[in-house]
Amino acid sequence: MFKRKNDVFFNTFEAMADTILEAVLYFQQNVSNIEDVTRFARDMKEFESQCDRHVHTILTELNRTFITPIERDDIMSLTGSLDDVLDGIEACASRFEMYNITEPDEYITLFADNLLRCAQQIKKAIYLLSEKKLLAMREPSIQINELENQADDLLRVCVKSLFANVTDPIELIKRKEIYERLEQTTDYCEDVANTLETIIMRNS
After folding, report:
1. What are the pLDDT digits (tens) for 161-193?
2. Could you give the CA distance from residue 72 to residue 92 in angstroms, rounded to a whole number?
3. Vertex 86: Cα angle to 37 and 72 (nearest 5)
4. CA-CA distance, 155 to 64, in Å (whole number)?
5. CA distance 90 to 5
6. What pLDDT, in 10s, does the model give residues 4-57?
7. Which of 200, 195, 201, 187 lies closest to 75, judged by CA?
8. Beta-carbon contacts of residue 73 (< 8 Å; ≥ 6 apart)
Protein backbone atom coordinates (compact mmCIF):
# COMPACT_ATOMS: atom_id res chain seq x y z
CA MET A 1 0.00 0.00 0.00
CA PHE A 2 1.40 3.34 -1.05
CA LYS A 3 1.48 6.39 1.16
CA ARG A 4 1.10 9.98 -0.04
CA LYS A 5 3.65 11.39 -2.45
CA ASN A 6 5.60 13.48 0.08
CA ASP A 7 6.71 10.35 1.90
CA VAL A 8 10.36 10.72 2.99
CA PHE A 9 11.38 7.53 1.17
CA PHE A 10 9.99 8.66 -2.20
CA ASN A 11 11.36 12.17 -1.72
CA THR A 12 14.81 10.76 -1.01
CA PHE A 13 14.66 8.37 -3.96
CA GLU A 14 13.88 11.40 -6.14
CA ALA A 15 16.85 13.24 -4.63
CA MET A 16 19.09 10.25 -5.38
CA ALA A 17 17.85 10.09 -8.98
CA ASP A 18 18.45 13.84 -9.34
CA THR A 19 22.00 13.47 -7.98
CA ILE A 20 22.74 10.56 -10.32
CA LEU A 21 21.57 12.57 -13.33
CA GLU A 22 23.59 15.64 -12.26
CA ALA A 23 26.71 13.51 -11.75
CA VAL A 24 26.41 11.63 -15.04
CA LEU A 25 25.67 14.86 -16.92
CA TYR A 26 28.79 16.44 -15.40
CA PHE A 27 30.80 13.35 -16.36
CA GLN A 28 29.43 13.35 -19.90
CA GLN A 29 30.05 17.07 -20.42
CA ASN A 30 33.64 16.97 -19.17
CA VAL A 31 35.06 13.57 -20.05
CA SER A 32 35.86 14.50 -23.66
CA ASN A 33 37.96 17.48 -22.63
CA ILE A 34 39.33 17.20 -19.08
CA GLU A 35 41.41 20.26 -18.32
CA ASP A 36 42.02 19.39 -14.66
CA VAL A 37 41.75 15.69 -13.75
CA THR A 38 42.11 16.40 -10.03
CA ARG A 39 39.18 18.80 -10.01
CA PHE A 40 37.17 16.41 -12.21
CA ALA A 41 37.70 13.55 -9.73
CA ARG A 42 37.04 15.80 -6.73
CA ASP A 43 33.76 17.10 -8.16
CA MET A 44 32.61 13.56 -8.93
CA LYS A 45 33.51 12.52 -5.39
CA GLU A 46 31.25 15.28 -4.05
CA PHE A 47 28.33 13.89 -6.05
CA GLU A 48 29.06 10.46 -4.57
CA SER A 49 29.18 11.88 -1.04
CA GLN A 50 25.86 13.64 -1.66
CA CYS A 51 24.30 10.33 -2.66
CA ASP A 52 25.75 8.66 0.44
CA ARG A 53 23.94 11.25 2.56
CA HIS A 54 20.68 10.29 0.88
CA VAL A 55 21.39 6.62 1.66
CA HIS A 56 21.95 7.56 5.30
CA THR A 57 18.59 9.39 5.33
CA ILE A 58 16.78 6.29 4.07
CA LEU A 59 18.52 3.91 6.49
CA THR A 60 17.78 6.22 9.42
CA GLU A 61 14.13 6.49 8.40
CA LEU A 62 13.84 2.71 7.97
CA ASN A 63 15.07 2.22 11.53
CA ARG A 64 12.34 4.39 12.97
CA THR A 65 9.44 3.65 10.61
CA PHE A 66 7.14 0.73 11.31
CA ILE A 67 4.93 0.97 8.20
CA THR A 68 6.78 1.71 4.96
CA PRO A 69 5.22 2.75 1.63
CA ILE A 70 6.63 -0.32 -0.15
CA GLU A 71 8.31 -3.51 1.12
CA ARG A 72 11.34 -2.84 3.29
CA ASP A 73 13.40 -5.24 1.16
CA ASP A 74 12.47 -3.27 -1.95
CA ILE A 75 13.46 0.00 -0.29
CA MET A 76 16.83 -1.51 0.63
CA SER A 77 17.36 -2.98 -2.85
CA LEU A 78 16.43 0.24 -4.63
CA THR A 79 18.60 2.32 -2.30
CA GLY A 80 21.56 0.01 -2.86
CA SER A 81 21.19 -0.15 -6.63
CA LEU A 82 20.85 3.63 -6.98
CA ASP A 83 23.92 4.12 -4.79
CA ASP A 84 25.86 1.60 -6.90
CA VAL A 85 25.27 3.70 -10.03
CA LEU A 86 26.83 6.76 -8.40
CA ASP A 87 29.66 4.72 -6.89
CA GLY A 88 30.34 3.25 -10.33
CA ILE A 89 30.59 6.55 -12.18
CA GLU A 90 32.70 8.07 -9.38
CA ALA A 91 35.09 5.10 -9.49
CA CYS A 92 35.50 5.70 -13.23
CA ALA A 93 36.24 9.38 -12.67
CA SER A 94 38.82 8.59 -10.00
CA ARG A 95 40.74 6.46 -12.52
CA PHE A 96 41.19 9.48 -14.77
CA GLU A 97 43.08 11.17 -11.96
CA MET A 98 45.03 8.06 -10.89
CA TYR A 99 46.12 7.29 -14.45
CA ASN A 100 46.33 10.96 -15.52
CA ILE A 101 44.12 10.41 -18.55
CA THR A 102 43.40 13.68 -20.35
CA GLU A 103 43.31 12.66 -24.00
CA PRO A 104 39.84 12.45 -25.61
CA ASP A 105 38.60 8.92 -26.26
CA GLU A 106 35.65 8.29 -28.59
CA TYR A 107 34.62 5.09 -26.79
CA ILE A 108 34.56 6.73 -23.35
CA THR A 109 32.42 9.48 -24.88
CA LEU A 110 30.00 6.87 -26.25
CA PHE A 111 29.79 5.16 -22.84
CA ALA A 112 29.14 8.55 -21.23
CA ASP A 113 26.31 9.24 -23.69
CA ASN A 114 24.82 5.82 -22.92
CA LEU A 115 25.03 6.42 -19.16
CA LEU A 116 23.40 9.81 -19.51
CA ARG A 117 20.43 8.22 -21.27
CA CYS A 118 20.30 5.57 -18.52
CA ALA A 119 20.32 8.26 -15.83
CA GLN A 120 17.50 10.13 -17.57
CA GLN A 121 15.41 6.95 -17.64
CA ILE A 122 16.19 6.23 -13.98
CA LYS A 123 14.96 9.68 -12.99
CA LYS A 124 11.82 9.21 -15.09
CA ALA A 125 11.09 5.85 -13.46
CA ILE A 126 11.71 7.06 -9.90
CA TYR A 127 9.39 10.03 -10.32
CA LEU A 128 6.72 7.70 -11.72
CA LEU A 129 7.19 5.54 -8.62
CA SER A 130 6.51 8.57 -6.42
CA GLU A 131 3.36 9.27 -8.42
CA LYS A 132 2.25 5.64 -7.99
CA LYS A 133 2.23 5.17 -11.77
CA LEU A 134 3.58 1.65 -11.53
CA LEU A 135 2.74 0.32 -14.96
CA ALA A 136 4.19 3.44 -16.60
CA MET A 137 7.52 2.56 -14.94
CA ARG A 138 7.85 -0.39 -17.31
CA GLU A 139 8.74 1.82 -20.28
CA PRO A 140 11.85 3.46 -18.75
CA SER A 141 12.85 0.08 -17.29
CA ILE A 142 12.77 -1.47 -20.76
CA GLN A 143 14.79 1.47 -22.10
CA ILE A 144 17.46 0.94 -19.43
CA ASN A 145 17.70 -2.76 -20.32
CA GLU A 146 18.14 -1.87 -23.98
CA LEU A 147 20.83 0.70 -23.17
CA GLU A 148 22.69 -1.88 -21.09
CA ASN A 149 22.64 -4.27 -24.07
CA GLN A 150 24.10 -1.49 -26.23
CA ALA A 151 26.85 -0.94 -23.66
CA ASP A 152 27.70 -4.67 -23.79
CA ASP A 153 28.11 -4.38 -27.55
CA LEU A 154 30.19 -1.22 -27.18
CA LEU A 155 32.54 -2.93 -24.73
CA ARG A 156 33.23 -5.73 -27.21
CA VAL A 157 33.94 -3.22 -29.98
CA CYS A 158 36.22 -0.97 -27.95
CA VAL A 159 38.26 -3.79 -26.39
CA LYS A 160 38.77 -5.34 -29.82
CA SER A 161 39.90 -1.94 -31.15
CA LEU A 162 42.17 -1.45 -28.14
CA PHE A 163 44.08 -4.68 -28.73
CA ALA A 164 44.28 -3.98 -32.45
CA ASN A 165 45.57 -0.42 -32.21
CA VAL A 166 47.31 0.21 -28.88
CA THR A 167 50.84 -1.12 -28.53
CA ASP A 168 51.77 0.41 -25.16
CA PRO A 169 50.77 -2.29 -22.61
CA ILE A 170 50.35 0.23 -19.76
CA GLU A 171 48.04 2.41 -21.83
CA LEU A 172 46.10 -0.67 -22.88
CA ILE A 173 45.58 -1.77 -19.26
CA LYS A 174 44.43 1.71 -18.20
CA ARG A 175 41.94 2.12 -21.03
CA LYS A 176 40.59 -1.41 -20.72
CA GLU A 177 39.87 -0.96 -17.01
CA ILE A 178 38.00 2.30 -17.63
CA TYR A 179 35.93 0.74 -20.44
CA GLU A 180 35.03 -2.19 -18.19
CA ARG A 181 34.12 0.05 -15.26
CA LEU A 182 31.89 2.17 -17.49
CA GLU A 183 30.13 -0.93 -18.79
CA GLN A 184 29.76 -2.21 -15.23
CA THR A 185 28.05 1.05 -14.31
CA THR A 186 25.44 0.36 -16.98
CA ASP A 187 24.96 -3.03 -15.29
CA TYR A 188 24.19 -1.12 -12.06
CA CYS A 189 21.62 0.92 -13.99
CA GLU A 190 20.04 -2.34 -15.12
CA ASP A 191 19.95 -3.47 -11.48
CA VAL A 192 17.84 -0.37 -10.75
CA ALA A 193 15.48 -1.35 -13.56
CA ASN A 194 15.22 -4.93 -12.28
CA THR A 195 14.43 -3.71 -8.76
CA LEU A 196 11.73 -1.45 -10.15
CA GLU A 197 10.25 -4.42 -12.01
CA THR A 198 10.05 -6.29 -8.70
CA ILE A 199 8.25 -3.33 -7.12
CA ILE A 200 5.81 -3.23 -10.04
CA MET A 201 5.00 -6.94 -9.65
CA ARG A 202 4.54 -6.75 -5.87
CA ASN A 203 2.34 -3.67 -5.87
CA SER A 204 0.26 -3.88 -9.07
Report:
1. 999 999 999 999 999 999 999 999 999 999 999
2. 30
3. 165
4. 43
5. 30
6. 545 899 999 999 999 999 999 999 999 988 889 999 999 999 999 999 999 999
7. 195
8. none
Do the Cβ atoms of 32 and 104 come closer than 8 Å?
Answer: yes
Cα–Cα nearest to 191, from 29, 56, 20, 40? 20
Contacts of residue 152, defined as CB under 8 A and 6 or more positions apart, other chains included, come to 183, 186
Query: Average pLDDT of 147-163?
Result: 97
Question: What is the spatial distance between Cα 70 and Cα 21, in angstroms, rounded to a whole number?
Answer: 24
Residue 2 scores a pLDDT above 70: no
Is residue 24 packed enough to be buried (19+ CB in 10 Å), middle (13-18) or exposed (0-12)?
Answer: buried
pLDDT tens, 109-133?
999 999 999 999 999 999 999 999 9
